[in-house]
Design goal:
Blueprint: E1 5-7, E2 15-19, E3 30-32, E4 38-40, H1 41-44, H2 46-57, E5 63-67
Antiparallel strand pairs: 1-5, 2-5, 3-4
């Protein structure tokens, strides 16, 4: 195996290929504020909200394939 090719289509014969739509998992922790209230970090921190949105919108190529030897 030389490397995994990332493709938008099934390459067909001559390749071992897989099509995976993997569920993304993340944590939006509950944090205690200075006032003693508990809030989700996405509400309190705009950067955390941006990073979580960016992660959830990521799409990898539809197919991973390895050329058969």
């Amino acid at each position: 195996m030389d490397h995994i090719e990332h493709l938008e289509f099934n390459p067909g014969e001559g390749y071992y290929s897989v099509h995976l739509d993997v569920k993304k998992r993340y944590i939006n922790p509950l944090v205690k504020t200075s006032s003693g209230r508990a809030e989700r970090i996405r509400i309190l921190n705009p950067e955390a909200d941006r990073l979580i949105k960016e992660f959830l919108s990521y799409r990898d190529s539809e197919w991973g394939a390895v050329k058969l030897m």
